[in-house]
Amino acid sequence: MDPSRPASPQPAVPPAAGPHAGAPRPLLVSAAPGPLQGEVRVPGDKSISHRALMFAALAEGVTRVEGLLEGEDVLRTADAMRALGARVEGLENGSWRVEGRGIGRLQEPADVLDMGNSGTAARLLAGILATHGFTSVMTGDGSLRGRPMRRVTEPLAATGARFASRAGGRLPLCIEGTGEARPVSYRLPVASAQVKSAILLAGLNARGETRVEEPVPTRDHTENMLRHFGAALFVETDAAGGRVIRLQGRPTLSARDVSVPADPSSAAFPLVAALLVPGSEILLRGVGLNPSRTGLFTTLREMGGFLELRDERVEGGEPVGDLLVRAGALRGVDVPAARAPSMIDEYPVLAVACAAAAGTSRLRGLEELRVKESDRLASTVALLERNGAQVRVDGNDMIVEGAGALRGGGTVETRMDHRLAMSAVVLGLAAREPVRVDDTAFIETSFPGFVPLMDSLGADLGREG
Ligand code: S3P
């Protein structure tokens, strides 16, 4: 279990600093001593975990959540919902109990809400806070304070809420919420599930119909879970694949149990490691297979990767399955921009696979990578270059010249970015020369237990700090 998990009953005010606020945790990663082998289940889906806690806090009754991700990001959401008056308790084995307060009935927080490293927590919560009639202040760590918030505050201002932020729309953000919110109708200018979700969450406490139009579909966990909790939500898909989502305001959400699948974005790391380390064969159990999240699996198959789905089933309203992965040679790939939202968090580790493949890869339409936990276009390029791979950026596309093998030997700056750190580890496991990762502490935000899990597959990490 994650030692950072708060004991219950928990304090109403989040701690000022999370476990990664201390000294950096460097790691020297040498090539895996042999094939990766075994069966593992990666931690719960981050997107679904945040939403489960938020929706349960807005529901009436007691929700039980199984398989919640107990990573730092989600624990920030748990702290925030507690500070807003919901009773949120971590029980044993990833099981959580949330006693909701009902829509519009959250209470003013006594202190600043610190969302740590989590863009999802900050943006979705902004939607909830916009339509509660009190004032709150939200901040985050150095990475989150650099990320754009106007993408949510602009559409949310149409509810009647008011926002004051630092220059450039950056956190800290002061939210003067309204208890008499107007419903919003908005066409998303960026493909962002966080923006869509913030507007829908605000719409829960607005009179009338909230409408969000997304020209490019993004992950639909908010829509699925709102329906699961009893909201009246309708989705229409047009001929070009765009979607219109309509939500009736002020429903009664009723507590419902939630079962969180293993996170496909976390599965990506052992998956790519197993494709690249010769002779490997691993089984990833219970991986979420929502089609809005599986772009990486499609892409790796196009590269010639062996990925076999077994025992596909539905758990807690989401499709899941076991994924068998076998090492083998990969070839370059051309990934269309339209696929980006379904694998937006997977580009750093995909770029590692592309560098190890034979031939050129072109990854298109990556403008959103510039505003992730780090500027992931720049940080992924640096990750590859420092380790001997040829890569360049052409507009919003990344072009990787695959050499059929990885050299390694570089020091990677992870820039407060968990996925960059894990991608660097994967690179090191498959490279000729050891890779030095400057700080692995941020891995705790989304994948607690990453190093021991990789070790259980035979990675033999952590031999030297
Ligand atoms: C998320 C949406 C994505 C993704 C993030 C989680 C979500 O962000 O990168 O890790 O849970 O809605 P954007 O909405 O900014 O694309």
Task: Walk me through this protein's architecture.
The active site is at residue 345. InterPro entries: Enolpyruvate_Tfrase_dom, Enolpyruvate_Tfrase_sf, EPSP_synthase, EPSP_synthase_CS, RNA3'P_cycl/enolpyr_Trfase_a/b. Keywords: Amino-acid biosynthesis, Aromatic amino acid biosynthesis, Cytoplasm, Transferase. There is one protein chain. α1 (46-58) runs parallel beside α2 and α7 runs parallel beside α11. By secondary structure, the chain is an alpha/beta fold. It has twelve helices and 25 strands. The protein folds into two domains: 27-43 and 261-456, Enolpyruvate transferase domain (UDP-n-acetylglucosamine1-carboxyvinyl-transferase, Chain, Alpha-beta prism); 46-258, Enolpyruvate transferase domain (UDP-n-acetylglucosamine1-carboxyvinyl-transferase, Chain, Alpha-beta prism), CATH 3.65.10.10. The longest helix has 13 residues, at 46-58. The two termini are 22 Å apart. A four-stranded mixed sheet has the order 2-15-17-16. Bound molecules: shikimate-3-phosphate (S3P). Shikimate-3-phosphate is lined by residues 47, 120, 192-194, 197, 219, 344-345, 368.
